[in-house]
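ok new one. same drill as before - structure tokens go in, u give me an amino acid for every spot. 294 of them this time. try not to just spam alanines like last time pls lmao
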């Protein structure tokens, strides 16, 4: 990825627009914003409203773990006012490169101030779980960071940004209450997923995620056998798979336990609706497990 980024940075310099604040058009009334993932676009648009023009680096069906930017994205990014990062894997290499290259670009870490959970990888120090956007309580912290930065860039509309923030926080509070109500009867329940993206969601609503993927890799035959035994012991009937990953191993487990593979998207575009839909899908899976046990 490093060599590809270097080449793209050279291209971006040649193609970069002159004005970095208003997306290359000084007559425009919108702030040019870049974000890493799709849910962030929803957050920025809820707060910035008609005063922001948001572009997403990691598009639908792509994984933040393996993403590489296009030359067009690099060119557009070089002419943006702000880039909101969030701690997903590709940023580790990406951010140092653009920090050196795009001096006018303001990079804001929206995860600052968020209490993180950690993966324990064998033989390594603990690795932070980046999937903070799947917990509505933590999203409120992200939203405040976004509001503060938009107000810095465009102080004339700071009052409107604050009003939008208050409205968004209210919606997040209602969402949190709704999800808590949906999942309360299944406190302590285990959900089987391919990629361990749902740790914050599970932690917030009294669940435990069990991942097919082991330390960022597909499981070995021995590990797969162990997962099948665990799924049988827990009487699991549904394995959740994200559209960004292969279904193969999840289907192997589902076939072995007489279960099914169900898609679940950790990068929701319509955040409020899709997160509540996710809660309902998990409730249905846990309800089937209870039915099996009885």
């Amino acid at each position: 990825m490093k060599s590809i980024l270097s080449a793209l940075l050279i291209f971006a310099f040649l193609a970069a627009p002159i004005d970095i604040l208003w997306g290359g058009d000084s007559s425009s009334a919108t702030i040019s914003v870049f974000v890493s993932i799709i849910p962030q676009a929803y957050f920025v648009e809820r707060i910035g409203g008609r005063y922001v023009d948001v572009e997403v680096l990691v598009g639908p069906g792509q994984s933040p773990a393996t993403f590489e930017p296009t030359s067009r994205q690099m060119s557009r990014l070089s002419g943006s006012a702000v880039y909101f990062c969030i701690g997903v894997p590709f940023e580790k290499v990406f951010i140092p490169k653009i920090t050196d290259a795009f001096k006018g670009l303001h990079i804001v870490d929206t995860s600052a101030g968020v209490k993180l959970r950690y993966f324990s990888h064998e033989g390594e120090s603990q690795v932070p779980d980046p999937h903070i956007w799947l917990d509505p309580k933590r999203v409120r912290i992200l939203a405040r960071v976004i509001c503060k930065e938009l107000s810095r860039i465009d102080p004339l509309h700071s009052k409107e940004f604050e009003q939008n923030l208050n409205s968004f926080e209210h919606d997040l509070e209602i969402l949190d209450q709704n999800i808590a109500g949906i999942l309360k009867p299944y406190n302590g329940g285990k959900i089987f997923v391919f990629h361990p993206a749902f740790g914050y969601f599970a932690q917030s609503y009294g669940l435990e995620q069990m991942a097919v993927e082991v330390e960022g890799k597909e499981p070995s035959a021995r590990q797969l056998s162990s997962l099948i035994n665990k799924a049988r012991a827990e009487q699991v009937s549904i394995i959740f798979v994200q559209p960004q990953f292969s279904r193969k191993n999840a289907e192997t487990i589902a076939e072995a336990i007489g279960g099914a593979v169900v898609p679940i998207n950790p990068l929701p575009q319509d955040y409020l609706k899709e997160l509540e839909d996710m809660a309902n899908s998990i409730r249905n899976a846990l309800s089937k497990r209870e039915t099996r046990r009885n």
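The chain has two domains: 2-178, 187-293. and btw The radius of gyration is 21 Å.
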